[in-house]
Specification:
There is one protein chain. The protein is an alpha+beta fold. It has a single domain, classed as Outer membrane efflux proteins (OEP). The protein contains ten helices and six strands, in the order αβααββααβααββααα. It has helices at 2-18, 32-50, 53-63, 116-182, 188-222, 250-260, 262-282, 322-387, 393-428, 434-444; strands spanning 28-30, 70-76, 102-111, 232-234, 289-297, 305-312. The strands form two sheets. A four-stranded antiparallel β-sheet has the order 2-3-5-6, with no helix packed on it. A two-stranded parallel sheet has the order 1-4. A hairpin with a 7-residue loop joins β5 (289-297) and β6. The radius of gyration is 39 Å and the shape is elongated. The two termini are 16 Å apart.
Length: 445
């Protein structure tokens, strides 16, 4: 069961998370799997209730129930004169003696015809499957919602780290410039320009810290604000990019998504349910039969003990359930249109997600193939040249700013690439954590 699978995973991950809390109240590093575990531990029952899985299973039991038989008992001839015929074996033919009332015992059983019960069972079965598919689709969507908030926090932390590095770097440069100013190696204006850049770096660090706290609050809101949520810090743990079809043709990926996406599966199951409901509505004109059988004991009758059997059938003379049939036909058409619309949306999702992944992956590759090293080399070279008086302070400051911008763009690019990877998996209906869940089950068993 999907819910049991998630509960097993959350228990394992939450146990590992609780063992990492610092007793002194310091920040706690949180992995993306632990963030997902907290989310589902606090929201799993709510999500399951929202999609009425338990109700669908109960309705499935109701639909398969066989009608209970009806037992009836009747006394007649309680008052009035009794006919004491010559052959009435229950009487002694004495006018002063009462023969007693007649007793009737009977059982009635409703027999559904035309396969109506089977259609109800099939319809409710499709409804349960659709509810479970809706739940898996919710898991697919909510997992990426948690990941987006998590990697947003990680990006803000990386920006804060960069801002701190620049502040520390300017502090070293400022101390060196104090000596150079004292010896007349640089002008006071150049010294002030560098000091202003150092103060700007400190302001950037303050802004970066604010952004981290805001990202922590956003993640806490997604996780429904658990204890110590403002102490959570995202681990610098990027996903291992697996082959989920990034290099396949678009049409092939679309075919994969149409087979795996739980939202389309749910719509198709609802369409199958509506089809069964339509068949059921059309068979309502086949009247069900009620069979009755019983035993009668009548002392004043010629036959003292006797059995009887009969049946009753409602006749569809004035109403042939056309309203139910028309309504079921409308529901069936609407469910088919919903499935077709979902299929169109899936095609668009796959194309958009694949394009976003290809773009984000290429941008990260450009950074890693030399742009990062170039930015660091330019900064260090400019700093060395400035310390020897071989370049102007403006060139030095520009190199520092270029390094900062390149690093911030790189952090943005790598987070965008991560989100694009998960978005592509989501568009395909791929469960990226299937192996981790299997390992969690093996560990707990």
């Amino acid at each position: 069961m999907e819910i049991c699978r998630l509960k097993s995973k959350t228990v394992l991950l939450l146990f590992s998370l609780l063992t990492t809390f610092d007793v002194y109240g310091q920040n706690v590093e949180l992995s993306v799997d632990e963030a997902l575990a907290i989310f589902y531990q606090r929201n799993l029952d709510l999500i399951a209730a929202q999609y009425n899985i338990d109700r669908s299973r109960a309705e499935e039991l109701i639909a398969g129930a066989i009608p209970n038989p009806t037992f009836s008992f009747q006394l007649s001839e309680l008052t009035g004169k009794t006919n004491r015929g010559a052959n009435a074996v229950g009487c002694d033919h004495n006018p002063s003696v009462s023969c007693g009332p007649a007793e009737y015992f009977s059982f009635s059983q409703l027999i559904e015809v035309a396969g109506k019960r089977g259609l109800r069972i099939q319809s409710s079965g499709f409804a349960t499957q659709a509810a479970e598919s809706d739940f898996r689709d919710a898991e697919r969507i909510f997992s990426n919602m948690v990941r987006d908030a998590y990697y947003q926090l990680l990006q803000m932390q990386k920006n804060r780290w960069l801002a701190q590095e620049i502040v520390d770097h300017y502090q070293d440069i400022t101390r060196a410039n104090n000596l150079r100013l004292s010896s007349g190696d640089i002008s006071e204006s150049d010294f002030l320009r560098v000091r202003m850049e150092a103060m700007r770096a400190e302001s950037d660090l303050d802004s970066a810290q604010t952004a981290v706290e805001q990202a922590q609050a956003s993640l806490a809101t997604v996780l429904r604000w658990p204890d110590k949520s403002m102490q959570f810090e995202a681990k610098e743990q990027w996903p291992e990019v697996m082959d989920i079809g990034q290099n396949r043709p678009k049409e092939e990926l679309i075919s994969v998504a149409l087979k795996q996406r739980p939202d389309l599966e749910a719509d198709k199951q609802r369409a199958q349910q509506a089809q069964k409901e339509l068949e059921l509505a059309r068979r309502l004109n086949y009247p069900d039969v009620t069979i009755t059988g019983g035993y009668a004991r009548d002392p004043s009758n010629n036959n003292l003990d006797t059995g009887f059997i009969g049946f009753s059938v409602p006749l569809p003379l004035f109403y042939q359930h056309k309203g139910e049939s028309d309504q079921a036909a409308v529901n069936f058409n609407q469910s088919q249109l919903a499935a077709e619309q979902t299929e169109l949306n899936i095609r668009s999702d796959v194309v958009s997600a694949l394009a976003a992944w290809n773009s984000a992956d290429k941008i990260v590759q450009r950074f890693q193939e030399g742009l990062l090293d170039d930015a660091l080399t330019v900064r260090d070279s400019s700093e060395l040249a400035y310390s020897k008086g071989a370049t102007s302070v403006l060139d030095f400051i520009e190199a520092q700013r270029s390094y900062k911008n390149v690093m911030r763009d790189y952090f943005t690019a790598i987070v965008n690439r991560t989100n694009a990877y998960y978005d592509l998996a989501k568009s395909l209906g791929v469960e990226l954590d299937a192996e981790k869940v299997s390992a969690a089950h093996k560990h707990t068993n």
